[in-house]
Amino acid sequence: MVIKHLLKYIPLLAVLLFTGCSGTYEKSGTLIVSAREALSLVKEGTWTLVDAQKASSFTKGHAKGAVNIERAQITGNIPVDNCIAAPDVVALAAGSAGLTTNSGILIYDGNSNMDSGRLAWTLMVYGHKGEIKIVSGGIDALTAEGAEITTGEMTVTPAVYEAGAFNTALVADKSEILSLLDNPKKDTILLDVRTDEEFAAGTIPGSVHINFESNNFKDGTYKPVQQIRILYKENGIMPEDTVIIYCQTSIRAAQTFAALYNAGYRNLKIYDGAWLEWSAAEDVPVYTVATPAEAQPVVEDAS
C-alpha cells in the first residue's frame, strides 16, 4: 500500500525534475506563437506579418497583408557566406518592408522555422525594440488555420528603420571558440545542430550534438516548451549555461536559438561563421567520428 501510495507521485516528481524548480529559467513562451495565435494578433491591427521566404516563393504565395524580408537581404559574406549583414544593410531591408524599430512583428517562413529564426535573431542583435514573434510551422500552419493566401508582390510604404548597436552578447566568433577550447568553461557549451552525418564527418572538439530537427514535430511546428526543456536537459544543457550554437552557416542554429529562447534560456550565442568558417581554417582543431566519404551533402536551404 505504501508503494502504491508513492507511485502516484512519480509523474509529479518527473515534472519537477525536468521543468526545473530552481528558478533559473527566464520567462518562456515569449518568442514562438501558434498560427492561430498569430492570426488573432493580426486582427488587432498593431502587428505586421513578415514573410521570410525567398522573394520568388513570396510572389508565388504568401499570407495576405504580409511583407517580405528574405534571407539574402539580411546576410553578407564577411567573413564567410550567410553571416549577419552590416547594420545599414539590415536597416534598409527592414525599412523597405515598412518596419520601424518599434514595430510588433510576426515572422513566418516555409523552411522549418529556420529563416524566421534567423530574421528574429538578426533583429535582436541590432536591438529591435518592438515585440518579435515567430509563427510556429510557418505558411503551412497559417494556411491550415484559414489564413488567406495571395500571390504577387506587395506594395509597401517604406519606413525609417534605425538599427541599434551590435549586441555582442548574442554572437560568437572564431577567436572566442578557440579561447574556449584553450580554456574550457564548465558552464559554456558548444552546440552543433547539424545532421548526424555532418557531425560524424567533423565537428568542433567538445561539441554537444542535437539535430535542429529535434525541435520540431513532423508537421514543421515547434515542440512545446516542456519538451524542449527536457530534450536539452537530457543532453546536459541547463538553463544557466552559456550555449554557443552553430551549424553549417548558422541558419539552422537560429532555429535552435529560437526554440531555446522561447523555453526560457537566455545565455545564448550563435557562432555566425559556423562550420563553414571553421572547416576552412588551417589553425583550428577538428574532431572526426567518421570519414568524410560517409557524410551526406548539405542542402543549401537547410544550412
Can you offer a commentary on this structure?
The protein is globular. With 303 residues, it is of the alpha/beta class. It starts with a helix and ends in a 23-residue tail after the last helix. Helix 3 (35-44) crosses helix 8 and helix 7 (114-125) packs across helix 12. The chain is built from 13 helices and 14 strands. The longest helix has 12 residues, at 114-125. Strands 1-8-7-2-4 form a five-stranded parallel β-sheet, sandwiched between helices. The protein has a five-stranded parallel β-sheet with strand order 10-14-13-11-12.
Topology, please?
Elements: H1 2-7, H2 10-19, E1 32-33, H3 35-44, E2 47-51, H4 55-60, E3 62-63, E4 67-68, H5 71-74, E5 75-76, E6 83-84, H6 87-96, E7 104-108, H7 114-125, E8 132-135, H8 138-144, E9 149-150, E10 171-172, H9 174-182, E11 188-192, H10 196-201, E12 208-209, H11 225-234, E13 242-246, H12 252-262, E14 268-271, H13 274-280
Parallel strand pairs: 1-8, 2-4, 2-7, 7-8, 10-14, 11-12, 11-13, 13-14
Antiparallel strand pairs: 3-9, 5-6
Helix pairs in contact: 3-8, 7-12
Describe this protein with a few key phrases.
303 residues; alpha/beta; 5-stranded parallel beta sheet; 13 helices; 36% helix; globular; disordered N terminus
